[in-house]
Amino acid sequence: MEERINQLEVKISYLEDFMNQLQEVAVSQAKEIELLRKENKLIREKLLDMIDSMDTDIPNRKPPHY
Fold first, then answer.
1. pLDDT class for 6, splitting at 50, 70, 90?
2. Separation between Cα atoms, residue 27 and residue 35, nearest integer Å
3. How far apart are CA 28 and CA 17, in angstroms?
4. Can you give the pLDDT at residue 42?
5. Where are the beta strands (DSSP E) in 1-66?
6. Which residues contact 56 (CB under 8 A, 6 or more apart)?
């Protein structure tokens, strides 16, 4: 019976370690996702600013190679 309890304690120990590693990965990924969202937002805002500042009138003329 004591051997069985020891085996269970070892398994629990491994499971606790594994859960801690998973938690570290999840926290790291959450931070990275938040950083990527912020970068995406900045890029989107800059792109919209560029689109707004572009002259939308395209001149109706022949290209230089004609």
1. very high
2. 13
3. 17
4. 98
5. none
6. none
Q: How big is the chain by its Cα radius of gyration, in Å?
A: 29
Whose structure tokens read 């890029």?
Answer: 43
- The two three-digit tokens of residue 24, written as one number: 């570290």
Reading the block at residue 16, the tokens are 């606790």
Location of structure tokens 């995406």: 40
Query: How far is 7 from 21, CA to CA, in rounded Å?
Result: 21
Q: Is the pTM of this model over 0.70?
A: no
Q: How many degrees, rounded to 5, is the angle at CA 61 between CA 59 and CA 56? A: 15
CA distance 64 to 34: 47
